[in-house]
C-alpha cells in the first residue's frame, strides 16, 4: 500500500484535496497549493512542490478601488488570497496534453495554473489565465467567483482521428457561479488544444439562479444578516448521457439541472472577420434528483478509518497527552481505485499555539482493491506500470503515417519533412515484421516522392533496392548492413556536394567536413562512422532522427523514450496563427482544402501532423515531460 505522506502545511479548505487525471494530488494550503507528484523509478513515491498562489501582477489582476457598501464589500481587494477550492480540468488543455489546475481563493478570484514542462519542477508552473475577466463587466458582484466545477469530457466530443482536430481531447467546459447568483458555462481554450493563439475563456451560457423565498414572516436579525446575500457555494457535475446533470447548492438547498451542449450547423465557407471559436449552443434545464448519472459522494473507507485511529494514538504518545487528541478531516479525493484523505491532529482540552509555518497535515491512502503489505503502489498509476507493447508495432504505425502518400499530398513538405521521410524509408526496410515484400514494393514510391520534392537524384538508393535479394533469401542482419552502407554512401555524396541545405542525413558535430553524415542502421542509436559520442547518441522515437540539439527534447515519463519537443524545436514548431484547422483526408474535399490553404498562403507540415497525431507516447501511451 502507499505509505502516508506528511506535508508541512496547514489545510485551508473543508475540501482541500483534488486529484488530477495524471495522478498529481493538489492540497489547498493557505496562500499556497501543495502538490504531490508521483515519481517513476524513484524510492520516494512523491515529488513535493509548493506553489505560491497569492502573488498577482497588475496585468493579471489590476489593483481596484474598494467597493461600495451596496456591494457588501469588506475589502476583498485587501483580503488574503487563501485557497478555498481546487479542481483539475480533464486531459488535453495544458502542454503535453496534461490537465490545468483551477484555483479559487478567498478574495473570490479564480485562476488557472499549468505546467509547461515537468510537473515535478516548481519553475514550470505558471498562472495562465484569470477567469474573472470573462464574467459580466457590470456589477462588482458579477465579477466575483463563489464556486466552480469542471465538466468531465464527453466521449461524443472527442475526435482523435482527424489531424489538428479542435476536439482531439474533447471540449473543456467549466461551470462558475458569481456573487450575484449568476451561473456561467464557459469554454477554456489554450495554445496546446485547438487553434487559440493564447489562453482564452469563451462564455457559452449565462443565467440567473432563482433566490429561495423566505418562509419566516418575522425573521431574527441574525437570520436577516445571514440571508442578506444568497449565493451558490457548491457545484458538481455528473456523467454524460447525451446531456450532463449539474448539481448546485444555494442557502443549504441542493438544486438539480441538466446541461445540454449542441454544435451549430457547420458552415463550409467562413468569412475572414469571423473568429475560429467553435459554434456551440449550451442550455440548462431541469433534471430529476434521482438521475443515476448524478455525482456521488466519496466515503471514508475502513482502511482510512483504521489509519486515522493509528495516527491519533501515535500523536497522543509522542506529545505525551494520552487520548486527549482531536482529529480533523479536510476532505477526501479519489483517483481510479485509490482514495486519499487529509487529516490534522490537535491536542484537546488545552491551548494549542502554532505559528503558520509550523502547520502539518497527513495524507492517508487506501488502494481499495489490495490492502496487503506486498502490493505495488506504482501499479495505482497507469503511466507507472504501462501495458507491455510491441515496439515493432508502434514503429510500424509511425512509419505508415510518415509514408502515407495521401497525407504527403495534403501537406507542405519542408526539408525537415523530407529528412523524416528518408529516415522512414530506411527504417521501413529494416523493420522486423513479416511484411518485407510489401515494404520493398512501396520503397520505390517513397524514393520517387523524395526526388520530386527535393529535386535530387537518389541513384544510390535505387541501385540498392535492385541489388537486394528476394526477401525470403536475406536475413535481417544482412538487410541492416545493406541499409547502413547505403546511407554511408548517401552521406559521402552529400559531403562532397557541399549542399547542406539539401542533405537528407544529419551531420556529426565533431567530425571534419568530409564524411560527417550519420548513417542509419538502428531505430534507437545514432553514431557517425567514427563512433563519436554527442550526448547520448539516441534517436527521436517518433521521427527516428538523431537528437543533436540540447533543450529541444522531451521524454515519456513511463518508458523514458526521448522525442523532439515540437514546441521548442525550430523545424517542427509551427505558429498557431499559421494553422488552418483539421485536415480532411477525404478525396471529395481535396479541392476545397487546397483552395483554403492557398488563400492563407500556408499549409501544415508533415512533422506537425506527425506530432499532433502522436501527442502521447506511441509505445506505452504515457504522457510527456520536458
From TrEMBL:
GO terms for cellular component: transcription factor TFIIIC complex. GO terms for biological process: transcription initiation at RNA polymerase III promoter. GO terms for molecular function: histone acetyltransferase activity. Residues 502-624 form the Transcription factor IIIC putative zinc-finger domain. Residues 19-242, 290-365 form the Transcription factor IIIC 90kDa subunit N-terminal domain. This is Transcription factor IIIC 90kDa subunit N-terminal domain-containing protein.
Amino acid at each position: 500500500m502507499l505509505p502516508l505522506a506528511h506535508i508541512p502545511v496547514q489545510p485551508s479548505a473543508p475540501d482541500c484535496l483534488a486529484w488530477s487525471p495524471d495522478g498529481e494530488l493538489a492540497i489547498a494550503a493557505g496562500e499556497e497549493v501543495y502538490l504531490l507528484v508521483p515519481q517513476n523509478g524513484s524510492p520516494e513515491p512523491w515529488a513535493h512542490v509548493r506553489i505560491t498562489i497569492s502573488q498577482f501582477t497588475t496585468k493579471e489582476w489590476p489593483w481596484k478601488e474598494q467597493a461600495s457598501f451596496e456591494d457588501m464589500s469588506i475589502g476583498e481587494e485587501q483580503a488574503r488570497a487563501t485557497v478555498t477550492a481546487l479542481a483539475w480540468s480533464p486531459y488535453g488543455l495544458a502542454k503535453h496534453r496534461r490537465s490545468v489546475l483551477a484555483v479559487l481563493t478567498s478574495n473570490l478570484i479564480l485562476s488557472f495554473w499549468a505546467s509547461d514542462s515537468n510537473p515535478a519542477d516548481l519553475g514550470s508552473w505558471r498562472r495562465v489565465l484569470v477567469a474573472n475577466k470573462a464574467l459580466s463587466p457590470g456589477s462588482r458582484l458579477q465579477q466575483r467567483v463563489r464556486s466552480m466545477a469542471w465538466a468531465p469530457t464527453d466521449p461524443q466530443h472527442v475526435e482523435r482521428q482527424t489531424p489538428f482536430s479542435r476536439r482531439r481531447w474533447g471540449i473543456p467546459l467549466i461551470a462558475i457561479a458569481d456573487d450575484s447568483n449568476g451561473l456561467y458555462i464557459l469554454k477554456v481554450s489554450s495554445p496546446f488544444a485547438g487553434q487559440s493563439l493564447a489562453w482564452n475563456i469563451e462564455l457559452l451560457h449565462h443565467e440567473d439562479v432563482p433566490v429561495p423565498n423566505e418562509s419566516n414572516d418575522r425573521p431574527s436579525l441574525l437570520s436577516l444578516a445571514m440571508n442578506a446575500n444568497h449565493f451558490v457555494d457548491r457545484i458538481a457535475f455528473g456523467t454524460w448521457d447525451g446531456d450532463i446533470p449539474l448539481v448546485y447548492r444555494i442557502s443549504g438547498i441542493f438544486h438539480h439541472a441538466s446541461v445540454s451542449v449542441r454544435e451549430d450547423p457547420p458552415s463550409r465557407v467562413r468569412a475572414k472577420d469571423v473568429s475560429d471559436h467553435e459554434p456551440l449552443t449550451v442550455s440548462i434545464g431541469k433534471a430529476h434528483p434521482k438521475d443515476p448519472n448524478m455525482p456521488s459522494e466519496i466515503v471514508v473507507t475502513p482502511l482510512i478509518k483504521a489509519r486515522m485511529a493509528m495516527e491519533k494514538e501515535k500523536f497522543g504518545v509522542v506529545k505525551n497527552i494520552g487520548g486527549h487528541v482531536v482529529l480533523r478531516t479536510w476532505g477526501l479525493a479519489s483517483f481510479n481505485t485509490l482514495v486519499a484523505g487529509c487529516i490534522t491532529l490537535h491536542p484537546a482540552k488545552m491551548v494549542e499555539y502554532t505559528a503558520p509555518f509550523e502547520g502539518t497535515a497527513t495524507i492517508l491512502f487506501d488502494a481499495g482493491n489490495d490492502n496487503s503489505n506486498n502490493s505495488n503502489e506504482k501499479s495505482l498509476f497507469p503511466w507507472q506500470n504501462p501495458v507491455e507493447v510491441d515496439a515493432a508495432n508502434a514503429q510500424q504505425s509511425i512509419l505508415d503515417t510518415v509514408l502515407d502518400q495521401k497525407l504527403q499530398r495534403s501537406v507542405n513538405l519542408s526539408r525537415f519533412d523530407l529528412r523524416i521521410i528518408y529516415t522512414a524509408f530506411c527504417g521501413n526496410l529494416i523493420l522486423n515484421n513479416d511484411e518485407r515484400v510489401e515494404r520493398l514494393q512501396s520503397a520505390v514510391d517513397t524514393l520517387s516522392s523524395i526526388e520530386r520534392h527535393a529535386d535530387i537524384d537518389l541513384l544510390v538508393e535505387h541501385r540498392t533496392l535492385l541489388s537486394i535479394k528476394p526477401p525470403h533469401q536475406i536475413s535481417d542482419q544482412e538487410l541492416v548492413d545493406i541499409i547502413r552502407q547505403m546511407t554511408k554512401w548517401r552521406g559521402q555524396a552529400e559531403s562532397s556536394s557541399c549542399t547542406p541545405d539539401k542533405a537528407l542525413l544529419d551531420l556529426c558535430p565533431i567530425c571534419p567536413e568530409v564524411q560527417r553524415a550519420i548513417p542509419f542502421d538502428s531505430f534507437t542509436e545514432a553514431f557517425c562512422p567514427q563512433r563519436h559520442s554527442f550526448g547520448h547518441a539516441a534517436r527521436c522515437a517518433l521521427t527516428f532522427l538523431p537528437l543533436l540539439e540540447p533543450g529541444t527534447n522531451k521524454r515519456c515519463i513511463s518508458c523514458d523514450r526521448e522525442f523532439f519537443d515540437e514546441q521548442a524545436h525550430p523545424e517542427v514548431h509551427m505558429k498557431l496563427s499559421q494553422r488552418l484547422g483539421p485536415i480532411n483526408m477525404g478525396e471529395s474535399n481535396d479541392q476545397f482544402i487546397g483552395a483554403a490553404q492557398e488563400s492563407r498562403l500556408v499549409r501544415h507540415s508533415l512533422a506537425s501532423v506527425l506530432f499532433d497525431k502522436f501527442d502521447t507516447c506511441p509505445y506505452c501511451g504515457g504522457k510527456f515531460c520536458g
